[in-house]
Automatic annotation (TrEMBL):
GO terms for cellular component: endomembrane system. GO terms for molecular function: glutathione transferase activity. It is a multi-pass membrane protein. The chain crosses the membrane at residues 95-115, 184-205, 244-265. The keyword Transmembrane helix applies. Keywords: Lipid biosynthesis, Lipid metabolism, Membrane, Phospholipid biosynthesis, Phospholipid metabolism, Transmembrane, Transmembrane helix. The keyword Ubl conjugation does not apply. It comes from the Eukaryota. Pfam families: PEMT. This is GST N-terminal domain-containing protein. GO terms for biological process: glutathione metabolic process; phosphatidylcholine biosynthetic process.
Length: 442
């Protein structure tokens, strides 16, 4: 039904095109190219030897081999008594392996387009040059083995060869000493090679179907033919040489693929997960970080350091002060604003947009000024005297009042709807909350 539907759609499109002047011209040009005839001619060319002739001969040999395989995959081909027949409808094998590879590459590309990219490679290896180099290395090895396999077949009888030509003699030398199907064993390598080239897990999944298809449909048909043609000598050969190289068949690929999928589905631990946050047991400079981590449900260890232990710890800290953090990777970082920004970036509480990020920084630096002015006010004084000084600074026109007014002005300049500086909650808003709590907590 799918083929019927697409044929109807194609016919409708051709009819629609032929109704317009430009369309008629285009169809005529395509007709003049005589693509179908050329393809038929190419597909019907006699088998060629890729290692012979100049570059043009090699190119036309590749072209005719591909055309031949495609044509047989699509149209099918009857086999002689010593040859397999190909064809979806009643052939010994439904599709030639080459056709199956092309179909799976196509499937991999469609899955990639539909579901988006799902990387297959480690970041360090995923540059296009590295991927191409790996693919070329794999591919060169595959070609090498195929050549040796072909030579082993031809050494028995020059008329036989790969690509489903008639079989006359059993080839057991060269790579056939290690596996009964060296060319198919190479497809096992081609699966990761193509998946790496595309750097796509979907390509890996689609390509894994090829060895499975070979194992379930193609190899049994081939071996049944060989058994029919050579009887006992094939049985003897099959008893000593495994089907797949070292017995590594498509099941191994499937297991590898399942492991990849499980790894993909398993949620990655958050970059900040397991972070240790060191600070005093007070709601002050460290609160912005504690709030951000708690709000975003990041698993962290709140390392509350009582003042009695600070003396011993101080010389071991990066800036002789708190807060400081230790990431699960072992990295230690100090300075509260650097920590706030790190946590903000890791929790989506720091804007990605450079201008909005600068607005957050601007407000945070203003809040730092509020802290400095507060600390400076009444420095050296204690008790009621200090309280009086600070109280005066908080009155209209006082230093602390003015510093706080600038924060309000910063919010007003941002002119975003709602209570937050950038329109969405950010570390600046949390720091305002923390700073107010710090100032009013005594
Ligand atoms: N610039 C530092 C200042 C840190 C700071 O002064 N922390 C205070 C606590 S709020 C501290 O560690 N005081 C104890 C000390 O200096 O020994 C930062 O922003 O992290």
């Amino acid at each position: 039904p799918l083929i019927e539907k697409s044929t109807t759609a194609l016919n409708d499109a051709i009819k629609a095109a032929s109704d317009s002047e430009a369309g008629t011209k285009m169809l005529k040009a395509v007709e003049d190219l005589q693509l179908a005839d050329r393809f038929e001619k190419l597909a019907a060319a006699p088998p060629c030897d890729l290692s012979k002739g100049d570059a043009t001969d090699k190119l036309s040999c590749i072209g005719s081999t591909i055309a031949n395989q495609l044509s047989r995959s699509i149209k099918g081909s009857p086999g002689a008594a010593n040859q397999l027949s190909v064809g979806m409808d009643g052939g010994d094998i439904p599709v030639l392996p080459f056709g199956a590879i092309l179909a799976c590459v196509f499937l991999g590309m469609v899955l990639r387009i539909v579901f988006g990219r799902q990387r297959f490679m480690r970041k360090s290896l995923s540059s296009f040059t590295a991927r191409t180099a790996i693919f070329i290395a794999f591919f060169a090895f595959v070609i090498g083995v195929n050549k040796q396999g072909e030579a082993a077949m031809k050494s028995m009888d020059a008329s036989q060869g790969p690509n489903f030509l008639p079989v006359t003699k059993l080839a057991t030398g060269g790579p056939y000493e290690h596996t009964r199907h060296p060319m198919y064993a190479c497809v096992m390598l081609l699966v990761p090679a193509v998946a790496m080239l595309a750097d796509s897990l979907y390509m890996a999944a689609a390509m894994s179907l090829v060895p499975l298809y070979l194992d379930r449909y193609v190899i049994p048909a081939e071996e049944a033919l060989l058994q029919k043609l050579f009887g006992g000598s094939f049985d003897e050969y099959a008893a000593t040489v495994p089907r797949w190289f070292m017995g590594v068949g498509p099941e191994v690929l499937l297991v590898a693929l399942i492991v990849c999928l499980i790894r993909m589905l398993k949620p990655k631990a958050h970059q900040l997960s397991g972070l240790k946050f060191y600070y005093f047991p007070v709601a002050a400079r460290g609160d912005c970080a504690r709030l951000a981590l708690t709000l975003r449900k990041i698993r962290f260890k709140d390392m509350v350091i009582p003042p009695s232990e600070w003396g011993d710890l101080k010389p071991k800290t990066p800036w002789s002060s708190m807060p400081y953090v230790e990431l699960s990777s072992g990295t230690v970082l100090g300075q509260s604003y650097a920590i706030f920004r790190l946590i903000g970036k890791g929790t989506g509480l720091y804007p990605e947009d450079a201008i909005l990020a600068a607005r957050v920084d601007e407000c945070m630096d203003g809040l730092s000024d509020v802290g400095s002015v507060t600390n400076k006010t009444g420095q050296g004084l204690t008790g009621a005297e200090k309280l009086k000084k600070r109280g005066a600074a908080c009155k209209e026109g006082g230093d602390i009042y003015v510093a706080c007014e600038r924060i309000e002005a910063c919010y007003a300049r941002a002119a975003t709807p709602g209570p937050f500086l950038t329109g969405e909650l950010s570390i600046a808003d949390l720091q305002v909350f923390a700073q107010v709590g710090w100032a009013t907590s005594g």
